[in-house]
Amino acid sequence: MRNDPAVKLIDSKGLRVDGRRLDELRPIKMEVGILDKANGSAYIEHGKNKILAAVYGPREAHPKHIALADRAVVRCRYHMAPFSVDERKSPAPSRRELELSKVIRESLEPAIMSEYFPRATIDIFIEVLQADAGTRCAGITAASLALADAGIPMRELVAACAAGKIEGKVILDLSDIEDKKGEADLPVALLPKSNVISLIQMDGSLSDEEFRQALDLSTDACRKIYEMQREALKLKYHIVRDGTEDKEEMAEVKA
Ligand code: ADP
């Protein structure tokens, strides 16, 4: 229930349930190229969220009638594993997963140079292994890395992070309890170089001023996440060049 007075989300020191400041991101780790069979892949831990993204393509469109003459068709499936939340979730696609698959695809499409691959498809799979709010954003961040890992030409990477409001205060990067008990959630995806917002949704309500604050917080966070994405990509090629698999070093790409 939103805005539940029985639950204290900010303590007397101004810290949140998990000890973060109002404008602090959760710890983030990213790893690129972790699946052998997919053309591109990435894994992200964003707070307690654990998400895998895999990309196939560009490959010949199948069934053929979905092919477009002037560009590749981008398809996306966002799926939450039955064990990703406290109560076992049905493995069948829910309305929420269908909506998220659509908005995630739309947030990535402006970055993909699909015009280079007419009559082809690019398939993006996002598997949420563990969920703790902000999975659409972490999924976008990971999928963008998986697309780059697949060698798909991109205008730039897409980074995403939510902001919101709890107990009357605008905060960055809501955890599950903050999402459930708070007053607003504003997921944002950003193409940081061109400054294009490719996803913005709002659940709950914010005043004009709060909306501006939340948007500033989330776009600043997207820029930080973008730097982490660049490091994660560089690390993969650094490791390939060295011929070493230094897991310790991979784990260092974090906030
Ligand atoms: P996002 O994960 O992008 O924030 P929502 O706002 O829809 O998307 O969901 C917030 C959180 O609620 C999820 O990350 C997850 O922790 C939890 N959640 C979503 N769907 C379910 C479900 N079917 N069962 C239990 N928890 C869920």
What this model shows, in words?
This protein is an alpha+beta fold. The protein has a single domain (28-249), classed as GHMP Kinase, N-terminal domain (Ribosomal Protein S5, domain 2), CATH 3.30.230. The protein has helices spanning 95-108, 135-149, 176-181, 208-242, 247-250, and strands at 28-32, 40-46, 49-60, 73-80, 120-130, 159-166, 169-172, 184-191, 196-200, 203-204. The strands form two sheets. The protein has a five-stranded mixed sheet. Strands 6, 7, 8, 9 and 10 form a five-stranded antiparallel sheet that branches. Helix 1 (95-108) crosses helix 2 and helix 2 runs parallel beside helix 4. The longest helix is centred in the last third of the chain and has 35 residues, at 208-242. It is globular and about 55 Å long. Adenosine-5'-diphosphate binds at residues 85, 87, 89, 96, 131-136, 176, 179, 185, 187.
> What hetero molecules are in the model?
adenosine-5'-diphosphate
**CATH-derived topology:** Ribosomal Protein S5, domain 2
Low-confidence stretches: 248-252
Based on Cα principal axes, name the global outline. Answer: globular
Q: Give the overall average pLDDT.
A: 93
